[in-house]
Write a structure and sequence with these properties.
This protein has helices at 7-13, 60-82, 87-117. The chain is 48% helix and 0% strand. Bound molecules: zinc ion. Zinc ion binds at residues 16, 18-19, 21, 43, 45-46, 48, 124.
């Protein structure tokens, strides 16, 4: 499922959606916050331009909303059902989860967004 060629691979690894050969992000570490959303203009392997049009990645905000909810639900389930936390602690753990994972949420949302529009093309991958 996470093998090269699947959309999940591109989404979780943040690699070029067409050739899956190289990271779209300049810095692999999303927690260097000043560079969290710095992306290469295009793929150095296959030449795909990531920003299909100006402000292309604004659309990923809708995705980040959904991804954020998924993280919030996970935090809720873990704190409420596994740690049996009270309602205040559950609330705090949800807020903390969203803050801590925000760089990852934003990146994954961009990866999901661009994968709506582009698909893996075997011919572009290195052998
Ligand atoms: Zn590429």
């Amino acid at each position: 499922m996470f093998k090269k060629g699947s959309k999940l691979y591109s989404i979780f690894m943040g690699v070029c959606p067409k050739c899956h050969e190289e990271s779209m992000f300049k810095n692999k570490n999303p927690y260097i916050l000043s560079q969290a959303l710095d992306m290469h203009e295009k793929c150095s392997n296959c030449g795909t331009k990531y920003k299909i049009e100006p402000s292309f990645f604004y659309g990923s905000m809708y995705v980040s909303y959904a991804v954020g909810i998924a993280f919030a639900v996970a935090a809720f389930i873990i704190s409420f059902f596994i740690f049996k936390a009270g309602i205040n602690a559950v609330f705090i753990s949800i807020v903390l989860t969203l803050i801590i994972f925000m760089p990852i949420i934003l990146r994954v949302s961009r990866n999901i967004w661009i994968n709506f529009f582009m698909s893996y093309d075997k011919k572009l991958a290195k052998k």
